[in-house]
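To illustrate the input format used throughout this study, we show a single complete record. The first block contains the structure-token representation of the backbone; no residue identities are included at this stage. The design step must infer an amino acid for every position from geometry alone.
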């Protein structure tokens, strides 16, 4: 089996877990008697632990140069820590398990991104055509498994996630053993990454572009229900967005060569400005169908540009740390804070709250455009 196929399997396993947990894990938590506020605290608690532990794991991976063995260890720990959830009694035990589980799952994606980009640089692998399998299995988890779970007992959710975790663990054994150069123990990878002003500007740009999706992620379904769209139609709209990003990933390598990473991020910000500005003023299903195509750019192009920007900007010996900082700052902090603000904005302005998201996309585009000519 080729290295690309093995890495595709890794992404498929990891994102199958995410695709099941994102929509359905709160349902399982509610079945255990947790209130809405307690569910929020459980999910937030896992994010906080991930925020603390991920840089430590990244530092270890960068110092050793290894990628494969940390992935195996983290995937095994995640599966083992997920096993006791049905035995957990009450909020505090579930919170503890969630924190430990999230702490092991969190570092996996940055390490996988670093591993894949090593393969891209040293062996000519196409990152986009590998990463798209994560998007496809996310759809399988959220839609396909969701269909099977309809009407099933809540424990079926736990079992589905566990099976996905076992699959993910199995895939880690087959990933190629690409290694970074390692680094001297005196090197502080985090200081090296955060000391780069251009990288900080890159974080600001991607935080704005990806953070502009917070209202969509948190309230997209509610907004479409408010506009009278059926649940089946809404499901197709979500799937359309992911399929659009997959199509972009298929042509990723050529796109990056022609456009460049910083310009791709700027393009994502411009598309976000257009997408969310129109979403703020329309109630037409036809228009939303067209707008969902832009997900290929608002998420896909921006993420693609970010991964290649990190690979181009940062030396291999700090690549896991750089990917981890990107993931924590953008997917964690930026989207988390914007999600909190989105709740107040949506309650007050409903669909017109998209104007704030449009402004974020525009700011991100300007910042990304300003760094396009900078060099390491």
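Output of the design step:
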């Amino acid at each position: 089996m080729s290295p690309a196929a093995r890495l595709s399997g890794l992404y498929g396993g990891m994102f199958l877990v995410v695709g099941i947990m994102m929509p359905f894990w709160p349902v399982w938590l509610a079945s255990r008697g947790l209130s809405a506020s307690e569910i929020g605290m459980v999910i937030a608690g896992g994010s906080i632990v991930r925020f603390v532990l991920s840089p430590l794991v990244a530092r270890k991976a960068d110092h050793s140069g290894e990628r494969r063995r940390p992935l195996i260890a983290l995937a095994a720990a995640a599966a083992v820590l997920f096993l006791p959830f049905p035995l957990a009694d009450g909020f505090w035990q579930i919170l503890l398990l969630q924190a430990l589980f999230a702490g092991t799952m969190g570092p996996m994606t940055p390490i996988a991104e670093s591993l894949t980009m090593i393969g891209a640089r040293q062996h000519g692998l196409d990152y986009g055509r590998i990463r798209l399998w994560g998007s496809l299995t996310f759809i399988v988890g959220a839609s396909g498994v969701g269909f099977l779970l309809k009407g099933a007992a809540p424990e079926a959710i736990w079992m589905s996630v566990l099976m996905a975790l076992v699959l993910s663990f199995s895939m880690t054994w087959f990933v190629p053993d690409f290694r970074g150069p390692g680094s001297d123990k005196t090197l502080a990878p985090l200081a090296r990454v955060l000391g780069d002003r251009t990288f900080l500007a890159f974080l600001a740009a991607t935080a704005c572009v990806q953070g502009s999706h917070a209202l969509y992620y948190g309230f997209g379904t509610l907004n479409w229900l408010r506009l009278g769209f059926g649940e089946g139609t809404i499901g197709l709209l979500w799937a359309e967005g992911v399929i659009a990003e997959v199509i972009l990933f298929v042509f990723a390598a050529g796109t990056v060569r022609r456009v460049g990473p910083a310009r791709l991020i700027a393009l994502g910000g411009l598309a976000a400005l257009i997408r969310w500005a129109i979403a703020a003023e329309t109630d037409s299903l036809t228009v939303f169908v067209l707008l969902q195509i832009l997900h290929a750019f608002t998420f896909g192009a921006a993420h693609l540009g970010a991964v290649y920007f990190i690979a181009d900007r940062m030396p291999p010996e700090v690549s896991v740390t750089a990917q981890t900082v990107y993931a924590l700052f953008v997917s964690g902090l930026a989207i988390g804070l914007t999600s909190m603000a989105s709740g107040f904005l949506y309650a007050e302005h409903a669909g017109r709250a998209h104007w704030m998201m449009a402004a974020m996309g525009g700011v991100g585009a300007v910042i990304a455009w300003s760094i396009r000519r900078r060099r390491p």
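Structural context for interpreting the output: The radius of gyration is 20 Å. The chain has a mean pLDDT of 83.
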